[in-house]
């Protein structure tokens, strides 16, 4: 048993000193605290249990304060812009099960991303969006519902839709309650669905798909087992298999998912379509 | 700080010996374990922190096994039949917020209860339901959404709709993870919305409304604070106010609510309309 | 058979000359066309088949253009302000069945109205809302689901919650397709649920409840029968009972309901809480 | 302008005599009327405007009567069995937009189909489903949301997931109100998304994908324009572009979609997993 977390920041926090092969920068932007962790090599990757790559974490005061603020959206969009290619077509993928509230962050965010790949040249001209990149969007569901691994689907799409890069959105697990709904992690290292729950499947990353894969997520749960382990310094475990499936989450989990998905979608649309007015994007989405 | 539970059974479990003024019977029915706790007087009520009355608890193996089984529905309906008047009109009230998944048990169950108060004599004859009682159904929402205390609403309805008794359905908090979605509590002592969370409002009961109030519920969450307190023998608390709003629940909370509401509605419809075929009730509901 | 409409404007349009007892004013406000019809006496009421009272109709270009615009919200709020008392407590009631999309306008709008009746003096002071009126909100469901007539519920609440006036919100039927989702009717004459479909129940109005009842609605459907009757100059009817239950509506009915309910809620909140900043209301709602 | 229908049966009904290249058989099965239309060659295809192939139509009395009956599910499953290969793996695709109620039939049905492709040999043995075929399921969304043509997605999947055949489910348009929710069409000729609305995209069929494509659908709407055209013998048109987007549908469209999707899913699961007990499939789905 060990504590579970999907955040590079929390893996790094377990070390009093920075492990070899890992770099860390911290700065503030308005009310947001930003941490940039760089896993430089396999030694670093082994230490903090995350693949080589950059991990940007934006932490904000609890949701109700300012999560919809223009300032926060801009901060997220700016940080995301550092990770995604300036040009080229994108495929945005919302991972997770839309019918399980704490897992619905990916599908809900994807539903608010503007798809433009289908818009022909003439319509683009009329709409004043000639310059924007081509974006496609998918929320493929989870293996148990579909029988298809997301990796296989993306592999197939990478040769037909041929995006230049992929953005995957997923609900994350944090180690600490205070980060639920208040933290956004963005990385260029891709994602391995199920990795956090010991049920790892194919890695979705540049090394397996041949194109950059940027992962974006918000922690929506703490594993009950992790909470208990932590609060008892590892002296107590949840032993029943059913108990180990339990999660800790705010009672208003539905609200957290609604807000976090709106925030992520705003930031992603802003970063992808940086060269047109946000109002135009909002109008095309409605 | 103390552990939070809405179950009389769990209050009783805190005593090695049965407190004065409390009686307890246990028996089995098929795969279900049934406990009947009777709080006989104020001394007992003070000891186990539940009002005077009868509390029937039906515990079943975890949900996936047999929750839809005809046997379980019948067991619940039989136990409920002990608590509700044999004749007379009923008002069924689903408490809770339908937009917060762990709190939606009441409204979702109410949505599956057959209302018959509006059906006139001629239609009843044609439908073959002359003999059934008159039932009305309401899911009034929560104080924060409506500005109206459920007590005030029921008080007003008790003089206009004039039901002979009320059934209130609500999501409960349990102390133990294993009881989430696997336990049904039914009592004739009414309910005090918000009592469990230190935010008690008017009691909804026979003594305040003048007619019997039967409460039915299923635990859907354990308070995170209770879990931690328990697992650390009271040595550790969650100190942050935000943390203390956290709940522990199965990841598939949506599924738990769907199944538990279907089960409760089946049992309540069966108990209310005991004198017609269940198939006829199902047909009228569709 | 005759054409069905819930709009006073469309009843009035059937007369080449204004009938006795009916007055009509028309003006423009930005892109909105506003018609004010006043039914002055029973003679007028009989002619245009609407009770005595004032009917304000705001027509806008099709939804996608500017329905979210600040200008339109303000126009609606101003017109509504003419109909509701300047002071006193309000009860806002969303009529209709939330599970039937074309009928869900009332419950969806009610879900976005800020309830303040439950907020105590101290909290009001802290939140900076001492001056606002007290508002309660209810979406009681329909007779077939609840067994309770909305009139009976409101009658009971008028003696317990004791609002000074009531606002009822309901989806309307129009005679013409072009008005679906593009027209708002507000009146001080109350409402008779089911009146439009030949299934009239108790009138909800000042004369039956003793307090002003302001009705607000948006047409979401045209009866298929009305469309056919109109387009064939009354020569063709839909004869099958099932066919006569059919409605004509935009394919994107879900979107129409989402937008219209957001618009109405914005305007109603603005009119009710005219003496605080809209931003504060938005914050309290989130 | 012409009347719009997705039903081969209704195309055929326009001819007093059977056109060359088209065959038609009619029979009864319990309360269901079954019509089998075979388009034998291009001459027939041109006449009735449907590709070469077999079209089975099952018509039942209006929904409320017996749509959930075991008898009807069996009739549909039997007819479907005639169209799908006895062995081999299947990909089931739910077409349409899950957020537009009249268009949500495909995604809703797909959500109730059991996916088994991901279940390994050992688990199959334990679950007693060694013999069943491998099935995957997808609800890919519509072009406007995703920017990806369903054809391109299926083309890509046909080389990675490599199903032996595909079943596509879609909401259909009928010409007559009486067929809404009461008719099921199944064919082996595939489908062209958007064909009915003059917005045809790539055909999804055996000739384009190289594997059998079976299409299954239920009419959920009549185009308002078709209704008007028909009822006025072509003398009246809806001229406004917005009006031409209007549909005619039952007020209880949500209920129609719920019931029709449950029925189709039952029948498809029954046909795909014909060699295990339906109860076992139901259990695996829950």
Task: Report what the structure shows.
The structure is a homotetramer of 286-residue chains. By secondary structure, chain A is α/β, with parallel strands linked by helices. Helices cover 33% and strands 22% of the residues of chain A. Chain A contains eleven helices and nine strands. In chain A, strands 1, 2, 3, 4, 5, 6, 7, 8 and 9 form a nine-stranded mixed β-sheet that branches. The model of chain A has no long low-confidence stretch (mean pLDDT 91). Chains in contact: A-B, A-C, A-D, B-C, B-D, C-D. At the A-B interface, helix 9, strand 9 and helix 10 of A face helix 9, strand 9 and helix 10 of B.
**Helix content bin of chain A:** 25-40%
Radius of gyration of chain A from CA coordinates:
19 Å
Strand content of chain A: 15-25%
Mean pLDDT of chain A: 91
CATH class wording of chain A: Alpha Beta
- Corresponding CATH architecture of chain A: 3-Layer(aba) Sandwich
Structural class of chain A: alpha/beta
Task: Give the SSE string of chain A.
Answer: HEEHEHEHHEHHEEHEHEHH
Largest interface: A-B, 31 and 32 residues
The number of distinct structural domains of chain A comes to 1
């Amino acid at each position: 048993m060990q504590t579970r977390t999907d955040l590079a920041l929390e893996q790094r926090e377990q070390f009093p000193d920075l492990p070899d092969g890992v770099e860390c920068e911290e700065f503030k932007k308005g009310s947001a605290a930003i941490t940039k962790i760089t896993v430089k090599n396999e030694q670093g990757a082994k230490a903090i249990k995350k693949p080589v790559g950059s991990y940007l974490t934006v932490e904000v005061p609890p949701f109700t304060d300012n999560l919809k603020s223009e300032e926060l959206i801009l901060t997220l969009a700016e940080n995301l812009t550092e990770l995604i290619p300036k040009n080229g077509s994108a495929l945005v993928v919302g991972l997770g099960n839309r019918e399980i509230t704490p897992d619905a962050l990916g599908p809900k965010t994807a539903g608010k991303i503007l798809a433009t790949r289908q818009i022909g040249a003439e319509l683009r001209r009329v709409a004043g969006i000639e310059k924007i990149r081509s974006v496609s969007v998918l929320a493929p569901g989870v293996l148990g519902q579909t029988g298809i691994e997301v990796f296989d689907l993306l592999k197939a799409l990478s040769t037909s839709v041929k995006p230049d890069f992929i953005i995957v959105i997923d609900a994350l697990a944090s180690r600490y309650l205070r980060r639920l709904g208040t933290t956004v992690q963005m990385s260029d290292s891709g994602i391995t669905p199920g990795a956090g729950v010991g049920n790892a499947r194919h890695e979705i990353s540049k090394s397996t798909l041949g194109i950059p894969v940027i992962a974006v997520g918000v922690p929506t749960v703490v594993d009950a087992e992790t909470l208990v382990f932590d609060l008892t310094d590892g002296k107590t475990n949840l032993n029943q298999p059913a108990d180990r499936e339990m999660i800790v989450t705010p009672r208003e989990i539905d609200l957290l998912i609604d807000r976090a998905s709106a925030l992520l979608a705003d930031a992603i649309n802003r970063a992808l379509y940086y060269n047109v007015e946000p109002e135009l994007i909002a109008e095309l989405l409605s």
